Description:
globular, 2 domains, disordered N terminus, ten-stranded mixed β-sheet, 17% strand, Rossmann fold
Amino acid sequence: MNCPNRPSRRLFAALLLAIASPTLAELPATGPASQPTDLPKDWVVTHASIDLAAGPLAYTATAGLLPLKNDAGKTQANIFFVAYAKDEKPNPARPITFVFNGGPGAASVWLHLGAAGPMRVKTDDFGHVGAPPFTLEPNRDTWLDSTDLVFIDPVGTGYSRPAEGVKISEFTGTQNDLKSVAEFIRLFLTQNNQWGRPVYLAGESYGTTRAAALSALLANDHGITVSGIALISTVLNFATLDFRPGNDLGYQLYMPSYATVAWYQHKLSKEKQAMPVEQIAEGARQWMQDRYLPALAKGSTLPDADRQQIAKEYADWTGLPAETVLASNLRITGQQFEKILLKDQRKIIGRFDARMTGYDLSPQQTSDPEFDPSLSEYLPAYTTAWNAYVRGTLGFKTDVKYEVLSPLVNPWDFGKGNLNVSDDMVHNLVEHPFTKILICSSYYDLATPFAAIDQTMASFDLSPALRGQIGTEYFEAGHMLYHHAPDRKKLHDAIARLVTPAPTPTPTVAP
């Protein structure tokens, strides 16, 4: 995620995605197929089938590099992708969804092998991958039953690289990244004769930032109006994640997530622990708006008695010691919360998934955890599973390193001030009111807190009809919400509703 106050290794890791898998012996029997002669020579086609609840689903996978060229026809970069298409008669009404992760610097492998693709990194129902060897398994919750899929690795991630002699800075940074991904989508639709099909975008973490801004850029620059956007673990306004002095938004909007996490970790009162998590979330949100926000607005003019009372109430909602809240001037950062909540157990909680904990090697330090137990478990699993899958099953062979979380894209140019792309997406919705937007937020995500995107969207004065185009789903999981088996199914169903057109009402004929 993009949190300017975090060390760089956490910065580029902060907005990414998730995982899932079968053993190599369990993978469907598939291999390179005979390729049509008009395919680029480095595109590899395979065929496979997966058994779903509705029956077998046969599909074709295409993996390759798509070159981006300048006006003179010279290649500037090669973008790696994997596309999956359901085997059926040509159907121009079938949706096609372009999928990417975030970072910046995250490859699409997280959503690919965690949620949407036909194979997933193998986990238990909670989401643990266990000890190596890491394996894959058929993904019964693949989105392929309702939409074709194209997974994109932006330049600098995965196998995507600038051409020889071209600087990677030509493709990094918010604006450059948007232009190159938009051009990839235009070229993919053109080269595969896909114009006219319903187009959807799906992104996770910083990928939601990309998807929101892309919806406007595609329409304005390429005449491609998207039918819908799926935003998974969302950030559109980076000020909502900012803990810098002078900006209290981050402190306010993280607080409800602190409450839901404290509830999960059994740190609240007996009365609050008896409530469902949805009630904790709403109660904490209400307290934040009615009590906490006005107190922060008063700053140093807040009377001492009021300060003491707010600290006590904050502690009651978050499980933190009131004296710690007071010592922090009523402002607790995400890093502090991760370190302090389970200090009595000498544990830190995960940033990406606060259900997960790890041993605290330096309990005397209370400002920033040394590692994220909800990331370190998954990074090797996804890396290993991907490298086996892409070569052995998809048949794409290269010695280039697959950058799962790439440092190559740093430094990333976010522009001046805190990046905010919510206006791009909302204006696109106003101009194209048929566009559907799905926002997926998790109660135990400390990278993109649910109250932040809720506040971002609530700030727009939309008509009831336009607001009706925006749906929000809440999940009892972390940033990579698909690691939790029940929420992976819930996400699948939400995506299916997003890409399925509403039935046309039968006109009423007067007698």
